[in-house]
Give the backbone structure.
Amino acid sequence: MSKINTNYPIQFHNEQVAILALSGDLTDKCAGNIEADFLAVACSGVCRLIVDFSNVKYINSAGIAVFIHLIHLSRKKHIELEAVG
Amino acid sequence: MEADEWEVISEFTIPSEQHHVIKAVEDVIQAVDGLGISKEQIFRLKTAVSEAVMNAAEHGNKFNPCLEVDIQVRANRKMLLISVSDQGAGGSIPKYETPDLQAKLVGKQSPRGWGFFLIEKMVDRMEVREEAGRNIIDLYLYRE
């Protein structure tokens, strides 16, 4: 397992699409950061968020829960969520 | 060694802190090296042990670093048995329920609650028991 990265960069592909590139370990320690990143994306007005798992080394059950929560939030905010990597 | 006779391969304890979980998994994998466990089984064992140890540290011991998680690795001719026990400060482990993905996605059920589900899928048998005030998760894996 690698060191947890709690600083996930958000890239805005254009005004409508943002990319959240996760890296390191996806566990409950990341939950607050990922939710904050998501809310920043939601406030920016994009309608599609791509979550890039390419550099995620490890996901545990709490990490699965973090992603499910992200799906739940995106549905509430009417943001299309796509997972890649 | 008789088929049903368990031999203790390794036993150790870790403080109930998240960063010790990784080391515990590595120590278990090292302990079972040479016991006829395939690469695929090793992969599954890593996930199962990680979830069981995290469960004990978080739910059993409430991440109190003064409380320990005990890990014991045993083997007989047919199986491996990894037992993970907490010190029971968190009370009994809640009854395991199969997660309902749809309910979780719409927010009707907590997004968490995947630990036992994952463990059960990764090992050949899982048992959860209480003994002397401790919660114990037994993970059984057939040796190839």
Q: What stands out?
A: Residues 1-5 of chain A have pLDDT under 50 and may be disordered. The first strand of chain A starts at residue 10 and ends at 12. DSSP finds two helices and four strands in chain A. Chain A touches chain B through 15 residues (CB under 8 Å).
